[in-house]
Amino acid sequence: MAYERLTIGATAIGIKAAEGVVVAAEKRISYGGYVVSRVGKKIFRIGDRMVIAAAGLFADMQTLSRVLSAEVMYRELLLSSKMRVRAAAKLLSAILYSYKLMPFLSEIIFAGYDEEGYHLYVLDPIGSIIEDNYAAIGTGAPIAIGVIESEYKNDIPLNTAIEVAIKAIKAAISRDAVSGDGIDIATVDKNGVKERSIIIS
After folding, report:
1. Over the stretch 91-110, which tens digit does the pLDDT of each residue have?
2. What CATH homologous superfamily does 2-196 map to?
3. Alpha carbon distance 4, 13 (integer Å)
4. Do residues 109 and 85 touch, judged by C-beta distance below 8 A?
5. pLDDT > 50? residue 7
6. Dihedral sign, CA of 171, 175, 178, 182?
7. Residues 6+ apart with CB under 8 A from 157
8. Rounded Cα–Cα distance for residues 191 and 187 (Å)
9. Residues classed as catalytic
């Protein structure tokens, strides 16, 4: 396949903590082994209580985030209630599966908060969905997941989870040529979504 000749790199991770959930991704956009941009954003807010972090083809990440955001907004207006995180993750899974013959070239980490608590899901390009306590996707995932597994504990504090996320992304950046140029971080807790960026020189 033509896809095999492309190097569509990225690193994104997610960690569920005691008081929230954190997702992080580096900022480099690469295509076919070339750096296209150093200021890409691979974390997208969905409503006021959910976020996705993506790795893969940048246009597909943007399209998926816009389609999902519109669908969630439509359903919440229609039902006059907030959509549960699991329902939104299942909706994204259905969207991905509906394009299985021409799939989006993106892996997704989906995280959020609702009355049932904090949730973290991982989805592949054709909609397989797994709920977990932590995850890493993209070309830097094998490096990042090793850092997370060595540091993760049940009921990890949110601030510690943020530190682990930064450490994992930095480790991936140092060893994966198509990841780099900074880190975007989003946290979801009872107060909503907070985002910030870290510049790495």
Report:
1. 999 999 999 999 999 999 99
2. Aminohydrolase, N-terminal nucleophile (Ntn) domain (3.60.20.10)
3. 23
4. no
5. no
6. positive
7. 17, 18, 19
8. 10
9. 11
